[in-house]
Amino acid sequence: QEYESRVGPATEPPSHPQPTRRKNLEFEPLSTTALILEDRPAYLPAKSEEESQRHRQEYSEMVAGAKRREMKEAQKKKLSHPYMRNTRRVRELWWQGVPPSVRGKVWSLAIGNELNITPELYEIFLSRAKEKWRSFSETSSVNENEDCGVSLADRESSLDLIKLDISRTFPSLYIFQKGGPYHDILHSVLGAYTCYRPDVGYVQGMSFIAAVLILNLEEADAFIAFANLLNKPCQMAFFRVDHDLMLKYFAAFEVFFEENLPKLFQHFQNNSLTPDFYLIDWIFTLYSKSLPLDVACRVWDVFCRDGEEALFRTGLGILRLYQDVLLQMDFIHSAQFLSRLPENTPAHALFSCIANTQMISNNRRWNQVFSALMKDGLKETDKSSSSSSSNSPALRS
């Protein structure tokens, strides 16, 4: 005590210094990042120069990777933002192909929801469809079907045609066929649509459009996009088999066909091969049946960006791509070839042909040419090129 009164109280034994915590940070860095960035505490051996350099290199790579991810996210946001669709940079990105991770969202925004369909409304029409299917399985009586508000034609469309088409939808994928993970979803979307639009009903080819949407969207969202897409003027004209309107689309197509590929156009004229023999199937399925799925999705990207013009421009791109082959074929072989395109149609070559297709005729773009046909009717020159279409067995079917 006397000693302490002279020299003061005994000091505590030295302890290991505690690592200082960084202040004013909203988060603590992940352990890997901290290990790379921080020097070791004083009570641990210091890093060697080689280890420090390696850690600095790892950190640089992490930063670069984060920047790349940020750029991709920014690109996705640009593509999906409705106000950015018409900027030059975004249009280029659409042409190159929308990233699959945001493709469904981008398509939904581009297609829109003018019909104001909600997921709840989808459930209502799906319930009606299931009730119809249940009544069909319980009785085959026409009278009972009529009591349920269902005609024999409705029965055939909602049962026979849908079931038949589902089994033939992307058969190589094995996901839409009976027992596949998407079979019931596809059946539900198509069935609900027949209840939602009984005036249209089910038309062969719809299953391919619905299937592509299901691959990119949740079930209810796929139905919303499907119903709104089929409500577009071009799709409605074809699916309701509006002959007069279809002839105008064919006539407009032939204007640009002759403008871009005069030699092949004349060859088809000489062989009486009219657009209805190949365009109907292409438009019905938005090329998802005719082209490889990944290529068809890129066509959809451009279609969502440019509207119906892109569908007919794609058709001209296909004709340009296979022009040399088609020039050597007669009517039958040309029709067979165009109804069953090569399975290995290359995306790069096709989109190069599409890019080289000019949708301008006499200083008029597609919508101007089509509007003139709608306003003034078919002119004499257009009548002569389309008259065979009006009598075509393909169009009558």
Automatic annotation (TrEMBL):
GO terms for molecular function: GTPase activator activity; small GTPase binding. Residues 97-307 form the Rab-GAP TBC domain. Residues 1-29 are annotated as: Disordered. InterPro entries: Rab-GAP-TBC_dom (IPR000195), Rab-GAP_TBC_sf (IPR035969), Rab_GAP_TBC_domain (IPR050302). SMART domains: TBC (SM00164). GO terms for cellular component: cytoplasmic vesicle; vacuole. GO terms for biological process: vesicle-mediated transport. It holds the Pfam family RabGAP-TBC. This is TBC1 domain family member 12-like.
